[in-house]
Every structure is written in structure tokens, then in C-alpha cells.
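User: Could you write out the 3D structure of this protein bound to 0O2? I've included everything you need below.
Assistant: Certainly. Input first, then the structure.
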Amino acid sequence: MEKNEQFIDSAGRVAKELVKFSQDMNMNEEMFLDMLEESLAPVDQFFANYNCAIMEVETKFKVLNEQFSLKYDGNPIESIHSRVKDYDSIIRKVIRKNIPRDLDSIEENINDIAGVRVVCSFVDDIYRLADCLLQQDDITLIRRKDYIKNPKPTGYRSLHLIVSVPIFLENERKEVKVEVQLRTIAMDFWASLEHKLRYKKNISKEMVENLSHELVDCANISASLDSRMQNVRNLILKESRGVEK
Ligand code: 0O2
């Protein structure tokens, strides 16, 4: 049986067990729903924590964007996209990485449940924004991977930061991990096309291989374009500062 089918099969068995349990305990519908709600409360809280952490990190970037626009020429951030990893993808990762199936272990071992993607026009802005975020005294850097300086063999480029940010709940301060991916518009365009190829079925092996080579080529051209655009911008800034003096 395929892993997916195994998962659906075991989920089906759990549902049947639950119904049987409620019948054995002589529970009426109301009691059964109460029980379900009670047992799902920690899961709801788990996802809510990640949503709150995303709000905190997004706000930090929006504030920096505003601040930078006063100091430099224009807003450094083109767009911000955030997501909480869905339940299915978390379970798949738990199975793949053999992580114990309890919320504490999942929280400890999976770093990208909350994801914030920041898209900039220029590479310099990526590093400037990352430095400013990491200087903030409530942000803890857990891991940094620079796939701009060291691109993946696929051609993938982005700056990845795993950070921990505090959220303030009713009676508790809680540290929550967020994966921040910073990339240029060109890197983002490339990554979304490559992502499509990776998850497409019914493409022959030969075709995948050809397209992968083509994508590595596109990534290099796109990196060169980013670098030239950065140079043009640097020259414009240098010139305009000279004129202002
Ligand atoms: P999704 O659907 O985007 O969330 P870890 O996550 O720490 O277990 P790893 O390998 O250390 O695994 O993470 P890595 O490679 O630093 O970053 C993982 C994420 O970066 C991926 O998430 C993608 O979003 C992105 N990424 C990494 N490599 C590539 C690549 O070659 N092409 C594209 N398009 N994206 C890439 P997920 O979980 O794979 O997917």
C-alpha cells in the first residue's frame, strides 16, 4: 500500500474507533461533539500560536518597509506571503522524518510550520532587511541558510532564516518558530515555476531531466539580471547623492 493510502486508511480506522468508543460509552451526539471539541482544543491552540507568530513577523517587516522608504528610495518589499503549513503536509513530514506523533515533538522538530516569504526587488534589500530583523531583541536566530550565496544544485536561490519570536497569550509568553524566506522577484518567479515541475505527475523522466537543466540555466540568467539591476540601482543612488551635495 502507498504511504498516502496507508495514511487515509489509518485515519479511517481512527474515525471508526472513535464512533465505536462513543457507542460503547453510551454517549449521545451532544456528548460526542463535546468530547471531540475538548480533545481538539490543543490542536486549535497549536495552529493559533503559529498564526499569531506570523502576525508578529509580518508586522516587523511592514514596519521596516515603512522605515526604509523614508531613508532610501522607495519601498524595499514588493510583497509578503504567509502561510501555516496544512495538517496533511505536517503529518507527511512527521512520517518522513520519523518524528514522534505528539504536538510537543512536532513543535520541536518541524521548523517551517509557520512560513513568511518576503519578496524584494533588489538583493541588497534582502540582506539589509534580514540584518534589521535579527538585530531586534525579541528575535532569536535558530538557523540561517544562504541559498543566494550558495544556490542549491536545482538553481534555487533565497535567504532562509529560522527565527523564534515571542507571542503574548492570555497568561503566557510563548516562543514560536517561524521560517522566513527572503528572495527577489526574479528568484520568486523562478521558484514558483520550478515548484510546479517538481509536483507535476505524468511527465516523462527524460522531459523532467531536460527541463531541470533548462531551469538551472534560467536561474543563472536570472541571478545575473538581479546583479545587473542592483548595479544600475547603486549607480543611480550614487549619482543622486552626488547631485544633492
Ligand atoms: P513548501 O510547500 O514550499 O513548504 P526542513 O524544512 O528543514 O526539513 P530543509 O531541506 O533543510 O528541510 O529545508 P530547506 O531546503 O532549507 O528549505 C525548504 C523550503 O525551501 C521548501 O519547503 C521550499 O519552500 C524551499 N525550497 C528549497 N529548495 C527548493 C528548490 O529547489 N525549489 C523550490 N521551488 N523551492 C525550494 P517545502 O517544505 O519543500 O515546500
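Strands lie at 77-84, 114-120, 140-146, 159-168, 173-184.
User: Perfect, thank you.
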